[in-house]
Design brief:
Length: about 300
């Protein structure tokens, strides 16, 4: 059970994603960050975390394992190449590892689609920012008709793509594609990523095209609207910019705007995956409190 109804957590990674996560944890009444882990004492993120009053270490996963704190959850915000090793160390501890890298090693999870199932998982994959944006809509379409082909094109500002994101683009594409197939049942999917240096930076946009037979456009519009409402419960900046539906094709574009706390508005790619992580963490904390309150 969380201490004082707050779940002890650690953030593994002090880049753009890790420090925005810390800001969100700082504002959460359900979560208590007890350690921020990096690999370089000069990391801007570790400096920021220390200024906020949080314990930090540049000792990587080894320092996390040596901590005296029992963590209920660890957020993996480093890179896909390191994730397997991190899970190998953390699995015996019983902590829930929420993976924000596209390593594709944990249970593929989108909060509004199968978030309740994740309450029993200890190794959770949040797929990718593009996956978190696209799958709620694509899953909604698949409830009406199983597509025989899906294409997903993500466009994000280069200023919001950190080093780990750029290094993991191949994993991003592969993991997002696999998740699209799992959540829609399509046998064929294609994923593309555009990182643009445009000025001013554009908002994070994801365009999806699903091909299927006997689509009813009215039903599709209704299902997508309901899916968007569910995501907006934890991510108000998520919206549909366009829907075009015919009996053979559905094309939809979603945009994600960051709320402007620490991230600029165009960094919706970071906002959506971090918001999903915090939402799931809150669900875990609430579930443990409820479990502990039972006679």
């Amino acid at each position: 059970m969380p201490v004082n109804n707050r779940l002890n957590v650690a953030v593994l990674g002090a880049g753009l994603i890790g420090i925005d996560l810390l800001d969100k944890i700082h504002r959460s009444p359900s979560l208590d960050c007890r350690l921020v882990v990096g690999r370089n004492t000069q990391t801007v993120g570790l400096t920021r975390a220390a200024e906020m009053g949080y314990p930090t270490t540049a000792g990587g996963i080894a320092a996390l394992m040596e901590s005296d704190t029992a963590f209920g959850m660890v957020f993996e915000a480093s890179n896909a190449d390191s994730h397997a090793e991190h899970w190998r160390h953390l699995e015996p501890t019983g902590a829930t590892l929420v993976d924000l890298t596209p390593s594709n090693l944990g249970a593929l999870t989108v909060p509004t689609v199968n978030g309740a199932d994740a309450l029993t998982e200890h190794h959770i994959s949040l797929i990718s920012c593009g996956g978190q944006a696209a799958i709620p809509v694509l899953h909604a379409i698949a409830q009406h008709r199983t597509p025989h082909y899906v294409e997903v094109v993500s466009t994000g500002a280069s200023r919001s793509a950190g080093r780990a994101t750029r290094l993991n683009l191949d994993e991003y594409i592969a993991t997002t594609r696999d998740a699209v197939c799992v959540f829609t049942g399509t046998p064929r999917a294609k994923v593309l990523v555009n990182v643009t240096p445009a000025t001013p930076p554009p908002p994070f946009r994801v365009t999806m095209t699903a091909l299927a037979a006997d689509i009813d456009p009215y039903t599709v519009h209704h299902l997508i609207a309901a899916a968007v409402d569910r995501v907006q419960a934890y991510l108000p900046g998520y919206s549909v910019a366009r829907i075009e539906a015919s009996p053979e094709r559905v094309t939809a574009t979603v945009e994600v705007i960051a709320p402007g706390h620490r991230l600029p508005a165009y960094a919706g790619n970071l906002e959506i995956i971090n918001a999903a992580a915090i939402y799931l963490a809150r669900m875990h904390a609430d579930a443990q409190v409820s479990e502990g309150a039972r006679p």
